[in-house]
Amino acid sequence: MIRVLVCDDQALVRTGFVTILDAQPDVEVVGEAGDGIGAVELGRRLRPDVVVMDIRMPGLDGIEATRRLAGPGVAEPVKTLVVTTFNLDEYVYQALRAGASGFLLKDATPQQLVAGVRTVAGGEALLAPAVTRRLIGRYGSRVRPADPPGAGKIVLAPRELEVLRLIAAGLSNAEIAAALVISAETVKTYVSRILTKLDLRDRVQAVVYAYRNGLTDEAAG
């Protein structure tokens, strides 16, 4: 079971998310919070697999709540999926810098919400397609305060570099496996090696690294 904490200051929206997620056979909503302070308290106490986090909440906004649960320096980060009405580059950038593993807009379908929770719980990054390339192109160079070790020189094997490019293109492990005609387990191994070699925390940072270092068609263009 994927244990989920739902955080949103609007009771109707929160109830909708809970109803959608609880209806899934592999998802269990273990708590709800109506503000950022409650989100942090419940996140630390319940240790859910995924926190579904709104951005604009009273007391403590979702960005700061995400930072306290998943940001740099957190010993045991909690995976966070930010879901918001606001399709603004700065919000997305701040959410990723705060440690969010995914970002969806509230106009996403119920199926996309469920898929997003499953994706983040599985350790993959998720960005709404409408904002991914625009965001990384504009803010990618600022997501990490310093270049990781080995920046400026190729430290990846050719196959690892190929996998990194496909991650940056937004492909899931299963899609990468199909594209390269290898197993999903092999892809998972490659992803782990890439993150370790480049000293990156997750796939979001891998995408940013690829754009920063001109490893994608979009970055090159």
TrEMBL record:
GO terms for biological process: phosphorelay signal transduction system; regulation of DNA-templated transcription. SUPFAM superfamilies: C-terminal effector domain of the bipartite response regulators, CheY-like. The modification 4-aspartylphosphate is found at residue 54. InterPro entries: CheY-like_superfamily, NreC/VraR/RcsB-like_REC, Sig_transdc_resp-reg_C-effctor, Sig_transdc_resp-reg_receiver, Tscrpt_reg_LuxR_C, WalR-like. Residues 3-121 form the Response regulatory domain. SMART domains: HTH_LUXR (SM00421), REC (SM00448). PROSITE patterns: HTH_LUXR_1, HTH_LUXR_2, RESPONSE_REGULATORY. One of its GO terms (molecular function) is DNA binding. Keywords: DNA-binding, Phosphoprotein, Transcription, Transcription regulation. Residues 149-214 form the HTH luxR-type domain. Signal peptide: none annotated. This is DNA-binding response regulator. It comes from Dactylosporangium sucinum.
